[in-house]
Amino acid sequence: IDRSTRLVQQLLTFSKLTKRKTDDERSRVNVSDIINKVVDSHKITQEKRNINVCLNIDVTEPVEMETHGEHLAILFDNLYSNSINHTPQGGTISLSLTLVNNQLTFVVEDSGLGVEESEFARLVVPFQKSKDGRLKGTGLGLAICNRIVALHDGQLILSKSLEFKGLAVRAHLFVNASVCTYR
Question: Which of the residues 6, 83, 147, 165 has an alpha carbon 20 to 30 A from that of 73?
Fold first, then answer.
């Protein structure tokens, strides 16, 4: 039931995002709060599996910006839950957030098995998973993330984590610097 519910939620989210041309429905959101809520929502699984989480937010003050908060929550949640699902018992996940001028970068790295470089482009296509079939899920999570990042005129980049040897996913989002403030 949980897997079916997740599939239906992701199908609805992907459908809504596919129809959306811009990220116009904006409100003032605190990006750090969204990340902290996402991490807290997975705390039981993280603790049960003894996963070490390193949270690196490279800003001195909380970041507030005009954007679609629900989209950012979905982006962060999909990337973080993917990382938890693919990190072994006792593994490590690193989450980082940086803001330089008008580019917000969110990076998730894990100590899982990773993905072959030849698979990176395939994983952001809807309903596509790795060819070897070892990745769980619907094949929609990274496609949804890719669409959210595109709505922010950004780029989703997959690579091998140099530090943890698993997967590293970088979401570069461009934000309106005139409405991005530190609180």
Answer: 165
99, β-bridge pairs: 104
- List Cβ neighbours of 80 (8 Å cut-off, separation of 6 or more): 38, 39, 42, 93, 95, 108
Secondary structure element (H or E) that encloses residue 104, with its range: strand 103-110
The three-state secondary structure class of 49 is coil
Q: At 147, list the tokens.
A: 């669409």
* 77 and 84 Cβ atoms separated by less than 8 Å: no
Q: Which two tokens stand for residue 175?
A: 């934000």
Place of tokens 């116009």: 24
For 100-143, write each residue's pLDDT tens digit: 877 889 999 999 988 888 888 888 887 766 665 555 666 788 99
C-alpha dist (Å) from residue 59 to 29, 34, 70, 89, 99: 16, 15, 22, 30, 7
Global pTM value: 0.82
> What's the pLDDT at 178?
45
